């Protein structure tokens, strides 16, 4: 089998629309120049879609069957994280919206990272990466990382009302809630009242 065949087998095994990949994901089956050339040929022939420089996917048909579905932004972020060896978290504003702490839906697709700040264009959308401090990235890999991000969305000037701790107690799966409370010391000092209020409300 050629390198192109090996690449397509790995891609199709993951399924259309299920994986965004970079040349680095195939360096075990060929040299860097050979993999780059194979991906370029496959994109040119239409077997793969080039979504940005060094980023590809196998597009899935859209629901109407007359074209292809947009590339999944989350898969793009995963691919960039693998390729560049950086950690990434969803933005605080997005997490706050998802957990019902805010009705504001961010205009930008944004992520926090320990890598460089930059903007990457995917289709008609820009993905914004914002470099943050190592303290923020302590939550990376924890199941409650999105909770910590939601809590810090409004910053130190947040009003001390019980809506936030009540909403978190209501919205969170108990396992995620307990993980958040277990690591609450890693929150900024100004936010420590929130996990304490959650404990008080829950009587734990």
In short:
The protein is built from nine helices and seven strands.
Describe the protein's topology.
Blueprint: H1 3-14, E1 20-21, H2 32-45, E2 49-52, E3 55-57, H3 73-84, E4 88-90, H4 92-98, E5 109-113, E6 118-122, E7 125-131, H5 134-137, H6 145-151, H7 163-171, H8 174-182, H9 193-202
Structure commentary:
This protein is an alpha+beta fold and 204 residues long. It has 9 helices and 7 strands; from the N terminus they run αβαββαβαβββααααα. The protein folds into 2 domains: 3-74, Orthogonal Bundle (Arc Repressor Mutant, subunit A); 86-202, no CATH class. The strands form 2 sheets. A 4-stranded mixed β-sheet has the order 4-5-7-6. Strands 1-3-2 form a 3-stranded antiparallel β-sheet, with helices on both faces. The longest helix has 14 residues, at 32-45. The radius of gyration is 21 Å and the shape is elongated. The relative contact order is 0.10.
- How many structural units, i.e. domains? 2
The tally of beta strands, per DSSP, is 7
Give the N-terminus to C-terminus distance in angstroms: 61 Å
| Largest sheet: number of strands, sense, barrel closure | 4 strands, mixed
Task: Compute the CA-based radius of gyration.
Answer: 21 Å
Low-confidence stretches: none
- Average per-residue pLDDT, rounded, comes to 93
Class based on secondary structure composition and strand pairing: alpha+beta
The proportion of strand residues reads 5-15%
Strand line-up across the major sheet: 4-5-7-6
Discrete helix count: 9
Shape: elongated
Helix content: 40-55%
Q: SSE string, helix = H, strand = E?
A: HEHEEHEHEEEHHHHH
């Amino acid at each position: 089998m050629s390198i192109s065949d090996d690449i397509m087998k790995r891609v199709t095994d993951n399924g259309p629309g299920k994986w965004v990949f970079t040349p680095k994901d195939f360096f075990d089956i060929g040299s860097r120049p050979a993999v780059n050339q194979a991906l370029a040929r496959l994109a040119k022939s239409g077997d793969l879609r080039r979504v940005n420089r060094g980023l590809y996917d196998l597009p899935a048909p859209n629901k109407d069957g007359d074209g292809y579905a947009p590339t999944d932004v989350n898969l793009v972020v995963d691919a960039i994280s693998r390729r560049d060896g950086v950690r990434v978290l969803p933005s605080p504003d997005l997490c706050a919206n998802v957990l019902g702490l805010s009705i504001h839906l961010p205009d930008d697709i944004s992520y926090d990272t320990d890598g460089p700040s930059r903007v990457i264009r995917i289709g008609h959308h820009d993905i914004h990466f914002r470099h943050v401090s190592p303290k923020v990235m302590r939550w990376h890999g924890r199941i409650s990382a999105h909770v910590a991000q939601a809590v810090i969305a409004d910053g130190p000037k947040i009003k001390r009302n019980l809506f936030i701790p009540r909403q978190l107690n209501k919205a969170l799966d108990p396992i995620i809630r307990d993980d958040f409370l277990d690591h609450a010391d890693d929150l900024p000092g100004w936010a420590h009242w929130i996990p304490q209020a959650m404990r008080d409300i829950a009587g734990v």
